[in-house]
Amino acid sequence: MTPDDRAGDEPAPFHDAFADLAERARARNVGRAERVLELLGGGAADADDQAEAAQLLHAVTGSAGTFGQEELSDAARHLAALLRDGDGVASGALDGLRRAARGETSA
Amino acid sequence: MHVSSGGRRVVVIDDDPSIREVTALALSAVGGHEVHTAGDGVEGVSLARRVRPDAILLDVMMPTVDGPTVLARIRAEEGLHDVPVVFLTAKVGAQDISRLDGLGAAAVFTKPFDPLSLPRLLAEALGWDR
């Protein structure tokens, strides 16, 4: 449950300010995810690309869930684990990140 | 949802502007605390030196100087060495949490987190609600 879901339970100044900064945070996270797709989507990511992608995925994992983008957070965490474990980046994981970034439900 | 333990001075050190902003908002608007923020570890230690906080919320993974290094610098600072530090991390593996616990932080909070619950969690972790 995010603060968006609980409008009315918290002080009004919190909710008004939260709505504004959450909108900016969500846009920032989508931008980060799109950058990860650029870095990893071509199949020729070098070590620097993978390091940048890992840093971005780490940021998205922490931030997206905090601002109500749970699917994006989960997709970023999954992809980060694949990168960290050296298992290779499955196209399905990239598709999952792409769908979550674009707000397409996984159902 | 104001907590009764407000009025503390808290420094937040995190390189993600969204996390900095929402943490500061929750701790001030909900928790009633005075919040100061820094975007990296070097600035964070300098800020803490100036404001002498009651607690420091510290991101673990930051470019240039990471959270554990910042914690070590805080512990070595006259006047800051006993300030409670709470790690804030997106690393949620049991080994990660155990390693961070062992560095001398007062608590480890994981991201994502519920901003509205943060002031209460911080108060509980630091005994401010007693």
- Beta strand count of chain A: 0
Strands of chain B, count: 5
Along the chain, the helix and strand elements of chain B come as EHEHEHEHEH
Task: Give the termini separation of chain A.
Answer: 20 Å
Summed up, the helix count of chain B is: 5
State the share of residues found in helices of chain B, binned by percent. Answer: 25-40%
CATH topology type of chain B: Rossmann fold
Q: In sequence order, what are the helices and strands of chain A, one letter per element?
A: HHHH
For the record, the count of structural domains of chain B works out to 1
Instruction: Extract low-pLDDT stretches of chain A.
Output: none
Question: Can you characterise this structure?
Answer:
The complex is a heterodimer of chains A (107) and B (130). Chain A has 107 residues and is mainly alpha-helical. In chain A, 72% of the residues lie in helices and 0% in strands. Chain A has four helices and no strands. Chain A has helices spanning 12-41, 47-66, 70-85, 91-101. In chain A, helix 1 (12-41) runs antiparallel to helix 2, helix 1 (12-41) packs antiparallel against helix 4 (91-101) and helix 3 runs antiparallel to helix 4. The longest helix of chain A has 30 residues, at 12-41. Chain A is elongated. In chain B, helix 2 runs parallel beside helix 3. Chain B has a single domain (9-122), classed as 3-Layer(aba) Sandwich (Rossmann fold). The longest helix of chain B has 14 residues, at 17-30. With 130 residues, chain B is α/β, with parallel strands linked by helices. Chain B is globular and about 30 Å long. Chain A binds chain B through residues 1-3, 6, 9-11, 13-14, 17-18, 21-22, 24-25, 28-29, 55, 58-59, 61-67, 70, 73, 77, and chain B through 1-2, 16-19, 21-22, 25-26, 29-30, 61, 63, 89-91, 111-116.
